[in-house]
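Researcher: I'm preparing a figure for a lab meeting and need a structural model of a single chain. I don't have an experimental structure, so a prediction will have to do for now. The sequence is pasted below. Please return the structure as tokens so I can convert it later.
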Amino acid sequence: MFGRKARFRKEAGFFHERTNMTVTPLPRLLPATPISPVSYDQTIWTHLKAFEGAVGRIYTDSQGIPTMGAGAALAVIGRDRAWVLRPAAEIGVEISGDPQAPYRFSAEEWQRLTLCLHALRQPDPQRAQALIPPFAPRHETPAHNRFGFTLSEARIRAVALAKWAAARRAVLGDLTAEAGRRGWGESAKAMIQAYAFSHQEAGLASVRYNIGTGRAMPKASAALLDGDRAALWYEIACNTNPPGNGAGRGGIARRRLAEAQLACGSPDRWNPAEQAGLEALFSRNADKMAAYRRAVPEIFPLT
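Model: Understood. Here is the structure written out token by token.
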């Protein structure tokens, strides 16, 4: 009987060790869909350029965050939850591409960034944008550049891909940590590595690139490890664009939809059970979805 019970537990989707260890469910992750290594960097750069742009100067975004290139923020949230400028030397190396000869901000330039930071902390995005103009594709003039350099597209791409690598590591680190919390062994962690350079990783990494590598997405990680395509799509598309994004919320909604499709595919191509799962999520979160649809009707129509 004992042998039959052991076989049943294994066949039913569980494994256990001898003695009195807890029975742990085997992982049932979503299948990874890889991106060709040959075209990976170009695929990611095309994606980032479409949603971040490629701006050769320092500009401010809709929140007043000083930014350059393809969404490389010069201010980040510090340990005390307040905005701080990244080190001048670090930014200088990104600008020049040469650790031995970083761009050196003049006193006036650094003061401008400091005043922009103060406005960001208020928050006063209009004041920040007056100090450092936002990017205006149809109305850009040399006067909009308040600093003594212009980034080439090659430099913008190099900085963006370096930032992307950090976002990728954050995603895989979160998945590994979630597997550890579930008590999965080393074999399950190895399975997680199959997501490296995949569409699933890319969708999640794009969100982390945008919101910051230090901001985990535990519900999305759990959905991926649960094999729940609908929950992963919902978390990316509908649950990572809070009201605090303000005027930029519509553009971010468009990006989140693309990231959800990248990670999960289009819902109209899912199987009926997955489609029903997404509809159930919309139903359980009806009030929240109604508010989101009102906020971004051009992305999620009201009807």
